[in-house]
Design a protein that fits this description.
single chain, mainly alpha
């Protein structure tokens, strides 16, 4: 039995492909509201997904801790983004 799930590697591969897409469209993305927050969320999620896969190969306790730490950080950034979206929807300055 493997120490990782094939679905975890699939999620990471799709996220890396999305990351390449983001890099290719970064000029357009920077012009969008809350783009910095969205990019920060994506990077934190990408790191968490990476740690999920890495924990299956070595340093399981360390990478498991980092995985959950980065998921929590991504959740905080998502809350900040939601607050920003509410302000943006109400027409308040960002």
């Amino acid at each position: 039995m493997t120490a990782y799930q094939p679905s975890e590697i699939t999620v990471l591969a799709v996220a890396l492909a999305a990351g390449i897409f983001i890099l290719g469209h970064r000029k357009w993305l920077r012009q969008q509201p809350l783009s910095t927050t969205a990019i920060a969320w994506f990077v934190l999620q990408l790191l968490a997904w990476s740690f999920t896969v890495l924990e299956g190969f070595f340093y399981a306790n360390l990478f498991n801790f980092l995985e959950h730490l980065f998921y929590a950080a991504a959740a905080v950034v998502a809350l900040i983004a939601c607050q920003g979206l509410l302000r943006y929807a109400k027409g308040e300055a960002q």
